[in-house]
Write a structure and sequence with these properties.
The structure holds 2 protein chains of 2 kinds. In chain A, 29% of the residues lie in helices and 29% in strands. Chain A contains 9 helices and 17 strands. A 9-stranded mixed β-sheet of chain A has the order 9-8-7-10-6-1-4-5-11, sandwiched between helices. A 5-stranded parallel β-sheet of chain A has the order 14-13-15-16-17. In chain A, α6 runs parallel beside α9. Chain B is an alpha/beta fold. Chain B has 6 helices and 13 strands. Chain B has a 9-stranded mixed β-sheet with strand order 9-8-7-10-6-1-4-5-11, with helices on both faces. A two-stranded antiparallel ribbon of chain B has the order 2-3. In chain B, 50% of the residues are buried. The model of chain B has no long low-confidence stretch (mean pLDDT 93). Classes of the chains: A alpha/beta, B alpha/beta. β17 (297-300) of chain A pairs parallel with β13 (233-236) of chain B.
Chain lengths: 319, 255
């Protein structure tokens, strides 16, 4: 009997898409599949989690998990692990889940693998290295439960049509674990779709030369419609755009219908986050840029001339 | 105020890490440097020390060559360094590394422990919180802005859709995202002074850890090439370039 759990990120609007991907994977390896959802929206998300394969959802709607991120969730999850002894827990590579998984590892002294692209069972997972050119299988030793953080979009979420039994969990959190408090929330103004959801991703790199030139990509995204703007690590490290734009090994994974890399050389760190895109267009003035090896259509030329023309061309076709 | 900055030496941070026959990243006889991601943590640490008074200690685990990374931190302005080097740590996984760093940090008394978000070679992205839990400390993670004053720390924490303002009492562990600040470039004076600053070298035994504490729980069992991509078409830009890209977008049914 293999017990596989999914630590599900939830909000009042429901379970995260990543949680449904993890449950789809969990069904293929576990005889028993459960989800743990902590924080406002958890019990309301249980039906959705059940539909993707959770037979049981351990849920608490308590605001403590939202007000004091990190330690309370790790504490309650540790208690659930002690009570039910799962063999494997899958986590999404989200900001909150990474914190909970890291703390859980210290409490349980279990192995923790990050960036997994596939999980064969509690004892084996795989990941891609060297820009996704090599796949390595990793044996997970030590105590159960094994902890695995999966890269987003490694699995296509598919419903199982199941229903979950909801087990309400007591949020018994000592005060000394409430030292961290979320005091404000800020949503960044975004007019278009999210980077992970957009049909077209336009990613800018050092070749844009100045932060203000990202507006060329914004204008193109506006002309296309269902398009979002991202960036290479080099552009983020330079402070041109926030970390939330970053696509790559450190950063987001995107798999759009069309990916357009603009002034990105295509360092191996970048490739990991975008090579699963259906069609890849690369625009770079350097014919030797590694990005061209990934491109379906590679254009050697001046982005400052090509991008405005493309924006115009699309606007013309749309008219 | 005492601040520890967690720093990692990584081989060839801008390129591809070579994998040896034992399936470990090759870390000896290769060019390496301070992980570029850690420079943001170091810069944040130095700014906190400047604003509040106090000093920064660079804390690192790595092979002999890792002294380069520690010295870079000292040249940027840290007061002293701690480097844990031990043959038994070769191929250490994230839990082993966290236990070693936690043990090294317990020898000091730090108000703030700062790290990058994830390393450029292993990119596990969980180590600082594991250290925090081992030290029983709160953590403020994914900071794109850090303010420390008196006994509290306040950060702007990156979220999927914006940022949250999150606060904690000190002592605490803080992780800083790339681009959160502009890491200073060491000047000649800093580089010269770095050589005179105290650098403590420790082994696993010095930290009071046993063989069980440094045993990794992960091993690479196989490695294969990922499916290669079929070659695409590479063209020089011309008058019809915009039309070609627009055609591709139309084929993909996105315009």
């Amino acid at each position: 009997m293999t017990k596989v759990w999914v630590y599900a990120d939830v909000s009042p609007t429901g379970a995260s898409p990543a949680a449904l991907e993890l449950l789809t994977k969990a069904r293929t390896i576990g005889d028993e599949v459960a989800a743990v959802a902590l924080g406002p929206g958890s019990t309301a998300s249980a039906a959705g989690l059940g539909e993707y394969g959770a037979q049981t959802v351990y849920a608490s709607d308590d605001a403590v998990f939202d007000e004091h991120p990190g330690q309370p969730a790790a504490h309650v999850l540790t208690g659930l692990v002690a009570d039910h002894l799962p063999d494997l827990i899958l986590f999404a590579t989200s900001y909150d889940s990474r914190d909970v998984a890291g703390r859980l590892q210290a409490k349980l002294r279990s192995t923790l693998m990050s960036n997994a692209t596939d999980v064969a069972g509690p004892d084996e997972a795989s990941t891609e290295i060297q820009g996704g050119t090599k796949v390595v299988a990793v044996e997970l030793g030590g105590f159960e439960p094994k902890l695995v953080l999966m890269r987003p979009k490694s699995v296509q979420a598919e419903p199982s049509g199941g229903t979950a039994r909801v087990v309400v969990v007591e949020a018994d959190v000592p005060d000394e674990l409430k030292k961290v408090t979320r005091v404000e929330r800020h949503e960044e103004e975004s007019t278009g779709p999210k980077l992970e959801d957009a049909k077209v991703v336009l990613a800018g790199g050092r070749g844009l030369k100045e932060p203000s030139n990202f507006k060329l990509l914004d204008e193109l995204a506006g002309a296309i419609g269902d398009a979002a703007v991202g960036a290479s690590r080099a552009a983020v490290d330079a402070g041109w755009v926030p970390y939330s734009y970053q696509i790559g090994q450190t950063g987001k994974t995107v798999k759009p219908e069309v990916y357009i890399a603009v002034g990105i050389s295509g360092a191996i760190q970048h490739a990991v986050g975008m090579k699963g895109s259906k069609r890849i267009v690369a625009i770079n003035k350097d014919a030797d840029a590694p990005i061209f090896q990934l491109a379906d259509l590679g254009i050697v030329g001046d982005l400052f001339s090509i991008i405005p023309h493309l924006t115009e061309e699309i606007a013309k076709r749309r008219a | 105020m005492q601040i520890a900055a967690l720093c990692k030496w990584v081989p060839n941070p801008q390129g591809v890490q070579e994998i040896g026959p034992d399936n470990f990243v090759v870390r000896s006889g290769v060019e390496g440097a301070l992980d570029p991601g850690d420079e943001f943590g170091l810069e944040a640490a130095l700014q906190i020390a400047e604003a509040n008074g106090g000093e920064v200690t660079v804390v690192s685990m790595g092979p002999e060559d890792a002294v380069v990374a520690v010295q870079r931190g000292l040249a940027m302005g840290a007061a002293k360094g701690v480097l844990v080097t031990d043959d038994s740590l070769r191929g250490a996984d994230v839990l082993v590394t966290a236990q070693v760093l936690a043990a090294a940090l317990r020898r000091g008394s730090y108000d703030v422990v700062i790290g990058g978000v994830e390393s450029t070679d292993g990119y596990t992205g969980t180590l600082p919180v594991t250290v925090a839990e081992l030290l029983d400390l709160p953590s403020l993670t994914f900071a794109k802005k850090v303010e420390v004053s008196g006994t509290t720390a306040r950060i702007d924490r990156q979220t999927e859709s914006g940022y949250d303002v999150v606060e904690s009492s000190l002592p605490a562990v803080i992780t800083v995202t790339a681009g959160a600040n502009e890491p200073r470039y060491p000047n000649l004076k800093g580089i010269m002074q770095a050589k005179q600053k105290p650098l403590e070298r420790l082994t696993v035994a010095d930290l009071g850890l046993g063989a069980d504490d440094v045993e990794s729980t992960q091993a690479v069992t196989s490695m294969r090439d990922a499916a290669a991509k079929a070659g695409g078409e590479i063209i020089e830009a011309g008058d019809d370039t915009a039309a070609r890209i627009a055609d591709l977008l139309a084929e993909a049914k996105v315009i």
